[in-house]
Design brief:
Largest sheet: 3 strands, parallel
Number of strands: 3
Radius of gyration: 12 Å
Shape: globular
Oligomer: single chain
Order of helices and strands: HEHEEH
Distance between the termini: 29 Å
Amino acid sequence: WDKVKQLENLAFMYDKEYVIFVGDSPRDYNFARQAGVKFVGIARPNSKVGFVLGDHPIIDNLYDVSKYAEA
């Protein structure tokens, strides 16, 4: 399965509002957009380069995802 199909299935099984895809590349961001789910970028070590696409949060560690799960 490709990522878009997986995200679409999750969005179907759960309310799309509660699905967050965490990715580390602009390609991941595009997958989330195609599936219609929220995206949170996780910065690669020492770099936030590559996350200039779209209006989405960028985090440094997975712990911070919880901040966006409640929003």
